[in-house]
Design the sequence.
């Protein structure tokens, strides 16, 4: 399906090329992860299998998803680019309604109620909530009277950002909810105070340390640091004592509140995943099995890998979800260090190009949306690879354009090509 000349000339073909290369490599990886040497092929890709038999394989269904993604791309770039700005809040309202009803009508799959079944297809509304929220917050950020230092604007922006993940958590889909933290990077680019990022980062570090270090040691260390600051600069003691004591009290509350959150808020499987992250040998045959086998697969690939379709960990299904959340271990086993490096370089190239495209936008809407795209892609990339090598807890986040799944591929395709559609007409935008 070809694009009209007036559309094709203005598209950023470098980004399109990177996307096509990643999707192609992603399909090869899904094929390798779901390939079975016991299935007769008679020298052809489909062999003598019927359509119904082929639909049992992830690699075949991924071909169908890729085909429909191409149709989506054409639709996205042909639609009037102003529609994304104009209907952003309408789409957001529809998405919120869908997230509200999903837990009530979806049947439980893997412990969550987040999948809608439409005949032979299953779609996950949480995947699409990311790009729709990006459109809504970009539309709001583009408002003429927006001031990020204004409390009302900050509250509205926080509400737009936090409502979808709260509803996603209600469906017991923690991983997808965490992705919305990535929007902070886009807000920082548009003028959010860096103090907010510093406070959030410090809070996260304190919570992590509270799990790793004895609490009395942590409280003692923070108290000593605060005392040294007062001793080195007495003016701080005189002018900022109430604020400093308030910060000290908040930190103490966080340190001793971790246990309550860990034991009473988190679900059992979430607690076990964090325990395994801290101590990999805590449950090697249970919750720790996925990560242990994933690291074995990646490590066994060595420098150049075992070769395409030669991965033993992959072939014998040692790693669960190896074509979805743990697709990166297939890359590591069959492609080795070289294969994983190629994938990482591709992601770096895509992220760099998206940031370049975002910076050349003439509208606040286009620039903010571009940074939302980069932030979401980076979060998925970093967390997915981190969890496959044991540096992040297993939270069920797919690797963009590589993991099997129609909802995943569609959502990332729409996320990216809305930006390219907006970029294609950046010269027609009025600077807001």
Sequence:
């Amino acid at each position: 399906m070809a694009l009209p000349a007036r559309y094709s000339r203005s598209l950023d073909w470098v980004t399109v090329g990177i996307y096509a290369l990643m999707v192609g490599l992603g399909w090869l990886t899904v094929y390798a992860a779901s390939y079975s040497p016991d299935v007769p092929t008679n020298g052809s890709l489909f062999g003598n299998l019927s359509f119904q038999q082929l639909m049992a394989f992830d690699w075949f269904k991924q071909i169908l998803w890729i085909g429909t993604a191409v149709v989506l791309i054409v639709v996205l770039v042909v639609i009037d680019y102003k529609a994304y700005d104009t209907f952003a809040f309408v789409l957001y309202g529809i998405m919120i309604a869908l997230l509200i009803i999903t837990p009530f009508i979806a049947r439980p799959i893997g412990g969550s109620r987040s999948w809608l079944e439409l005949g032979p297809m299953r779609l996950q509304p949480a995947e699409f909530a990311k790009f729709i929220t990006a459109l809504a917050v970009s539309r709001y950020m583009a408002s003429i009277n927006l001031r990020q230092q204004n409390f009302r604007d900050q509250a509205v922006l926080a509400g737009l950002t936090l409502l979808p993940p709260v509803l996603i958590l209600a469906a017991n889909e923690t991983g997808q909810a965490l992705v919305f933290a990535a929007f902070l990077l886009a807000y920082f680019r548009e003028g959010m105070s860096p103090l907010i990022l510093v406070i959030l980062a410090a809070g996260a570090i304190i919570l992590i340390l509270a799990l790793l270090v004895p609490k009395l040691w942590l409280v003692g260390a923070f108290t000593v640091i605060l005392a040294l600051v007062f001793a080195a600069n007495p003016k701080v003691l005189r002018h900022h004592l109430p604020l400093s004591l308030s910060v000290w009290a908040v930190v103490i509350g966080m340190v001793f509140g971790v246990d309550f959150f860990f034991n009473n808020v988190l679900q059992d499987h979430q607690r076990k995943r964090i325990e395994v992250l801290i101590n990999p040998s805590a449950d090697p045959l249970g919750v720790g099995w996925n990560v242990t086998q994933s690291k074995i697969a990646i490590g066994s690939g060595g420098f150049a890998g075992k070769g395409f379709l030669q991965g033993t960990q992959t072939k014998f299904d040692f790693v669960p979800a190896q074509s979805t959340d743990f697709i990166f271990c297939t890359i590591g086993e069959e492609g080795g260090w070289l294969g994983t490096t190629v994938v990482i370089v591709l992601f770096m190239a895509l992220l760099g190009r998206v940031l370049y495209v975002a910076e050349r936008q003439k509208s606040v809407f286009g620039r903010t949306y571009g940074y939302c795209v980069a932030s979401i892609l980076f979060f998925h990339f970093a967390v997915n690879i981190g969890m496959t090598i044991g540096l992040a807890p297993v939270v069920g986040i797919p690797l963009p354009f590589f993991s099997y799944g129609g909802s995943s591929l569609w959502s990332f395709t729409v996320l990216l090509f809305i930006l390219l559609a907006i970029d294609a007409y950046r010269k027609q935008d009025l600077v807001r």
Summary: The CA atoms of residues 10 and 424 lie 5 Å apart. Residues 197-275 form one domain.
